[in-house]
Amino acid sequence: MSERMTRVDLLRSWTDQIPLRYEYTAGVAGEKFFRGLKRGKVLAGACDKCGAKYVPPKAYCVNCFTRVSKFVEVGPEGRIGALSESHVEFDGSKAKEPKLVAFVTFKGTTGGLIHRVEGHKLRIGARVRPRFVPESERKGSLLDIAAFEAV
After folding, report:
1. What is the pTM of this model?
2. Which of 2, 74, 82, 147 has the fewest CB atoms in 10 Å of its CB?
3. What are the CA-CA distances from residue 118 to residues 42, 95, 107 (Å)?
4. Helix, strand, coil shares of the chain as percentages rounded to 5?
5. Is residue 146 helix, strand or coil?
6. Strands of 42-46's sheet, edge to edge?
7. How far apart are CA 46 and CA 34, in angstroms?
């Protein structure tokens, strides 16, 4: 082994499995948010002290570090803040047709949601609304929104 080469330089690959199991809760703010989606509403966490609103909700206000305990409905209309085209499915396989994914923001809030978008003339700044799956199929998940559609 030369002076410049270390043991790390000799390591090229390692094939193995590490069995990992994660169990995380959504937390208080996340649970409120997902319960709102199940009811067909997008909720923001609202700070009682400074009035900041966050989507998705946060447990504590980033501005004044106050605990966020108030949740308010926002939208349903939002705007596209960023837009991308994906040629890959969520499972990593090649998509049959490209899908549009956007960062959707809501008036008067900080943050937003990354989700599929559908419609014509989609662009940054375009107005969109969530299209929820039928109520009987909702599970309290971000996928309770089938997609955001152009207004």
Report:
1. 0.79
2. 2
3. 18, 16, 20
4. 15, 40, 45
5. strand
6. 70-74, 42-46, 53-55, 110-111
7. 16
Superfamily of domain 24-150: Nucleic acid-binding proteins (2.40.50.140)
Q: Which two tokens mark 36?
A: 């709102």
- Pairing status of strand 42-46 against strand 70-74: antiparallel
In 16-124, at which residue ranges do the beta strands (DSSP E only) sit?
Answer: 42-46, 53-55, 70-74, 78-88, 94-105, 110-111, 113-118
Model pLDDT for residues 107-144, shown as the tens digit of each residue: 999 999 999 999 988 999 999 999 999 999 999 999 99
Q: Distance (Å, rounded) from C-alpha 75 to C-alpha 138?
A: 19
Which string of DSSP letters, residue by residue, matches 60-76? B-TTT-PBP-EEEEE-S
pLDDT tens sequence across 19-30:
877 777 888 999
The two structure tokens encoding residue 115: 């989700």
**Residue-averaged pLDDT of the chain:** 90
- Tell me how far apart the alpha carbons of residues 117 and 80 are, in angstroms, rounded to a whole number: 9
Rg (the chain; Cα; Å): 21
